[in-house]
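Operator note (shift B, R.M.): manual run for Flagellar protein FlgN requested after the automated queue skipped it. Running by hand, logging everything below so the morning shift can see what happened. Input copied straight from the record, untouched. If output looks odd, do not overwrite the archive copy; leave it for review.
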Amino acid sequence: MVAMLGELLDQQADQLQQLIDLQAAEKEALIKRDAPVLDQITEDKEKILNTIQQVDKSIAEHPQHDAINHQPELLEKRTAIQQLMDKCQLNNEVNGQVVRMTLGRIQDLKQTLQATQSGTTITYTDKGKTYSGPSGKSIKA
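Run finished. Output pasted below as returned.
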């Protein structure tokens, strides 16, 4: 019975490692702005996350669940799983930062394009943010 619990923990670790690998691929796709690849990665991540959730439920409902905290071999596996989860969380934060930076660049480009079409100019505020205002054509010296 405890052996089955160990197998569940191994399966959980494998799923988390697959998720980490997908996060690395996701980061590359974000940097390259490869939307089709990102769509596939999102689908794959959903499948893995569903599996992780199912395995987690099986572990929680296992009759000898408490053995995880007492048996050295299971405790070691639990620690490894926690480390993998921490890495997943860090990867998510990094990928989120890449998304925010990309969106910021897109917003700047959008403002520039809108200013070009509307006859306004783009300048910068004292905080370094872009600002759209009327072009200098209306100033008469």
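Quick read of the result: The domain at 2-134 is CATH 1.20.58.300 (Methane Monooxygenase Hydroxylase; Chain G, domain 1). Helices lie at 2-32, 35-61, 72-118.
Leaving this for review. - R.M.
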